[in-house]
Amino acid sequence: MKDIAKFAGTTLLVLLTLTLVSLVFIQSFMGDYDWLNLTLTAVYTLATLAALFYDGLQRGTQDCKYAALMEKQVQERGHVLSETEKQRMYRPVKGWAAALLSMSPLFILAVVAIAFGGNQPILLTLIVRVAMSAVLGVFQYVEALLPWFYIAVPLVFAVCVGAGYACGPKMWARQVKMMEKAKRDKRRRVSRRRRKKAPKPQ
Questions:
Q1: What is the DSSP secondary-structure string of 66-130?
Q2: CA separation for the pair 190, 195 (Å, rounded)
Q3: Burial 14-29 (b: 16+ CB within 10 A, else e)
Q4: CA 94 vs CA 6, 50, 157: distances in Å
Q5: Pick from 107, 110, 106, 134: nearest CA to 50
Q6: Residue 162 — very low, low, confident or very high, per pLDDT cuts 50/70/90?
Q7: What values do phi and psi take at 146, rounded to 5?
Q8: Which of 29, 86, 96, 131 is the S-S candidate for 162 at Cβ 3.0 to 4.6 Å?
Q9: What is the mean pLDDT of the chain?
């Protein structure tokens, strides 16, 4: 659970960074041109989703790498895995648990906003929109869906993180292939150098 909480904290920090960027920079570019607003909204929303997916992917890949290292320790040295080490290894459920945990503050805000229905206090609306400002530009196009749209935002964020983590094994397998190829290429280069340096028979 501790490792899941740490993973969730890292993801939440990524989201907070994206939120800050949106509030400080992206919103300053919004203007009177609908096409510009729509373009910025679409681009930054996709960038946010991609960043969350990548965050999950990176963590999934790291956990797979750690699992491979621990398995090697067990096979070669007879190392007995501790519970902490087991928790650190890749587990599919970890990605989804961390994703939901990291987005739980947004879920809570969304539930509260829905509970108020169309009569939510202005302060609550402001808090919710600031908390979800990584996709703030979307709100002007979905007014009819509020406040139910609030629940969709953290759900989509969580899916991106969880899906990214689930892709970790494939990314790790790709990295292993690349490392093996690099080793083979290096051996070939060394072998060619040795053949060139070897004295020719008289």
A1: HHHHHHHHHHHH-PPPPHHHHHHS--HHHHHHHHHHHTHHHHHHHHHHHHHGGG--HHHHHHHHH
A2: 9
A3: bbeebbebbeeebeee
A4: 11, 20, 16
A5: 134
A6: very high
A7: -75, 150
A8: 96
A9: 81
- The tokens describing 10, both together, are 């890292």
Tell me which H or E stretch contains 44.
Answer: helix 34-77
What are 22-59's pLDDT values in tens digits? 777 666 666 666 766 777 778 888 888 999 999 999 99
CA distance 119 to 195: 81
pLDDT digits 0-9 by tens, 76-101:
787 777 888 888 888 889 999 999 99
**Residue 168: Cβ within 10 Å count:** 24
Token pair for 15: 């989201």
Q: At 195, is the secondary structure helix, strand, or coil?
A: helix
Tokens of 111: 């539930």
Q: Count CB-CB contacts under 10 A for residue 136.
A: 20
Above 80 in pLDDT, residue 152? yes
Residues in the chain: 202
